[in-house]
Structures are given as C-alpha cells and as structure tokens.
Amino acid sequence: MKNVLKIAGAYVGIVVGAGFASGQEVLQFFTGFGWISILGTVAATVLFSFLGMQLLQIGSRLQTDSHKNVIDLICGRILGRFVDIIITFFLFGVAVVMIAGSGSIFQQQFGIASLYGSLVMTGLTIVTVCFQFQKVISAISLMTPFLFVMIFIVTAFSFVQYGGNVTDIFQLGKTENTAASNWMISAVLYVSYNIAAGGAILTLIGGAEKNEKTAGLGGLFGGIGLGLLVLLINVTMLLNFQEIQSVDMPIVHIANEVSPVIGYLMSFVLLAMIYNTTVGMIYAFAARVIPSSHRSFKPSVISFTIVAFFASFVGFVKLVGTLYPIVGYLGMTLMIAVIVAWFKFKKQHMPENDLKMTS
C-alpha cells in the first residue's frame, strides 16, 4: 500500500501545475459553466482514473525507461512515431511554461523579479533530476498531501463565509471565458491536456514499479485524488464566483482572503507543484532523448534545463495561451488511442504472456 500511495501522490504531483493549483484552469474548463461543472468534475475523475491506471500498468509490464515503447504499443508504429515526436516536444514546452510560471509567482506574490524565481526553479530542477528517478518520485509525492490540506482549508472557509443561499449556485450559468462551448467537451479537453503533458512520465513511473497491480492501483487512487482536487477547487470558486472571474490566480486570491499567512502558504505550495511538474517534464524529455543510464544523461539534463530557462523569457501568459490548447488536442489523440487499445486487447482476450491492460 505504501508504494500505491507513493505512485498516486506522484501522479497527482505531476499533473498539478501552475494552472491547476492556482485555479485558473479549473475556472476556464469547469467553473465557467456554472453549477453543471460539478458533473464535469465527475467525468474528469473517471477519465483520470482510467487513463492513469492503464498508462501506469503498461509502463510496469514493459518495465520501460522511455515513453516511446508504450506509445508504439498503443498507437502503432506509424501514428506512434508522430505522437512520440509531438509528446517529446511538449514535454520540453510544458517545462518552459512551468519555469516561466515560477517567475510570475515570485513577482506577483513576493515582489521578487521573475528572473530570480525562474533561476531558482531551474537550479532545483537540475539538482533533483540528476538523482535517480525513484528519488524523484519521492520528491514529487512529498508535497501532494500539503496541497490537499491547503485546498481543504480554503474550501471550508468558503463554505463558512458564504453569504448567499447554496441554491444560488444552481442559478449560475455559463460565462464567456470558457475553454469550450460545452461542459462535457471542456472536461474531456482538460483531461486530455493533462494526459498529453503527464502521460509520458506516468509510463516511466510505471516502469519503475515491478508489480503491475500496484502500479494500476496507484493510477486509480491518483485519478480519484485529482478528481477530488478539481471538485474542491471548483466548488470553492462557485462559492466565490463573482469576485474571482477576473483574477489570475483565484485560489491564491481566496487563500489571501482567509489569512495573509494562508495566502503565503498557498503560494509556497503552488511553487512546489510547479517544481513537481518541471522535474517530471525535464526527466521524461531527457530520458526520451538519452537513456537515463548513459553517462551523458546528467550533462544533457543540465543543458536542456538551461535552454528551457532562456526559452521561458517569452512570458508565462503568452506561453500558456499558445501551447496549452495545442497540447489539449494532442492529448485527445493519445486518450482515444489508450481507450481503443484497451477495448482491442480486452476483446482479443490476450494470453497471459502478452500485455494485459486491465486491472
């Protein structure tokens, strides 16, 4: 059970990045649709659990040290080659966004120039990724419980301080600033983006776990944990709907309403989540380009991370607006491929020595 929870924590830690923990992505993909967004969080929970379980189990069965083997199995050699190239590119791209995001938080919350915030994140990432990946998993999962605690505090405060009638929430309708025209499509796109960004790392985490059942349960619990976080953040913002629509970091804004101390703690947790995501993305990108056992792996990690640091000068907002929508549609391709492959192997009743994709 210890390994299951560690894998589940790593899953949550990898997916939770700047937009997730701050509430901005949840606002656009869920809360903007009003009360029906609660159903969207349920759909997202199911998809996170199913897809995480499948990717982790595949990685465990193949004992993979690169996402390429898993992608080839799921998508086939021709489509797999295209998906592999695109995913590898976006692993680096998301790392760039995270480094830029860390700089933005330092500037907005602490009044420190964004350059220094990005430098700190770059240095921490290099040091962490140069350890063995098993240690990276432990580092990633370490901060996840703190995120749950902070979100629970903010949600509880929102319920206590809510001045209206709870039924008023059910009167909220769709706003203009939503990620898609339909709440279900938006929920699916949200999951697809996160799977595109984090799916490669999930296969590596699965590859580090010899027990396929343990890997699968880690994916299941991690998906449930992600769904719970989305639900809590969504409900919190529904309770504060009028005041957070024009705020860049809604959850941090609400946390500051609770207490300045809580606001600062939330900011530190947010930075930790960005760190988690940056570490995971850089490791997966480097492991795809150069095997982690190769002697040039660590020097390459240093070079890749420094390049990502300089690329982050483009700016956090611009990077998010350009990269994230494309990643979402890429994730849709991968997500559909995983589901189709699951049905395919289930229908064929694969023998025991072949890959089992169900738990």
Automatic annotation (TrEMBL):
Coiled coil: none annotated. InterPro entries: YkvI-like (IPR038728). The keyword Membrane applies. The chain crosses the membrane at residues 33-57, 78-100, 112-133, 145-163, 183-205, 217-241, 261-285, 297-317, 323-343. It comes from the Bacteria. The keyword Plastid does not apply. Keywords: Membrane, Transmembrane, Transmembrane helix. PANTHER family: CONSERVED MEMBRANE PROTEIN (PTHR37814), MEMBRANE PROTEIN (PTHR37814:SF1). This is Membrane protein YkvI. The lineage of its organism: Bacteria, Bacillati, Bacillota, Bacilli, Bacillales.
